[in-house]
Amino acid sequence: MNLSSLVATWAVKYDVESALEHVNGQEPSACDALATRGVRVTTCRDGERVPDVQADLVVVHGAAPGLPAWREWLVEASKRASKLVIVAAPDPERSPHARLRRILNRALGLPGETPSWGATSALAPVLWEIGRVREHEPIQGDAHAFVVDVTPRTPQARRRLRVAGTTG
């Protein structure tokens, strides 16, 4: 399945009315289908300043963000989401070269590589810091996507959010 179809499916499932998309690299927008359904979509590309807007959904996809501190950047970008964050990235752990490298390293007794952008082992701790990972799907090529639920967990937290929104 491709990312655009998954984003559209998840947007319906989680009742998304607005989206902020950040595309890393030269990939096409994954939110075009949402815009045709009436969802308000704001798209920016790497190198552009991420607009200071709130949206139900934040989508980050493509190559590694051009930042050495991508973890902190991803946490900050996710703060613009009120319902969901979708992160899609190439999965270096699924590429044939990575598999071969792991097998050779194990056979030779060499240490493993430090996980990079897109690797589940690198993304998972950051995604769980952002919210609750609800879904993880392989997508076209050697890539995968995660859905992170960022809605408040308790009735008290939801109430505080509603009150803050009405008094601010």
What's a quick, concise take on this entry?
This protein is α/β, with parallel strands linked by helices.
Supply the helix-strand structural class.
Answer: alpha/beta
> Could you state the order of secondary-structure elements as H and E?
HEHEEHEHHEEH
CATH architecture group name: 3-Layer(aba) Sandwich
The number of E-state strands comes to 6
CATH superfamily: Vaccinia Virus protein VP39
Helix content: 25-40%
Q: Quick one: biggest sheet?
A: 6 strands, mixed
Spatial strand arrangement across the major sheet: 2-1-3-4-6-5
Beta-strand percentage range: 25-35%
Task: Supply the number of helical segments.
Answer: 6
Please state the CA-atom Rg, rounded to the nearest Å.
17 Å
Shape: globular
Number of individual domains:
1
Report on the structure:
- The protein has 168 residues and is α/β, with parallel strands linked by helices.
- It has a single domain (3-167), classed as 3-Layer(aba) Sandwich (Rossmann fold).
- Helices cover 37% and strands 27% of the residues.
- The protein is built from 6 helices and 6 strands; from the N terminus they run αβαββαβααββα.
- It has helices at 3-13, 32-36, 70-78, 96-108, 120-130, 155-167, and strands at 18-24, 40-45, 55-62, 81-90, 132-139, 143-149.
- The protein has a 6-stranded mixed β-sheet, with helices on both faces.
- α3 (70-78) runs parallel beside α5.
- It is globular and about 60 Å long.
- The model has no long low-confidence stretch (mean pLDDT 85).
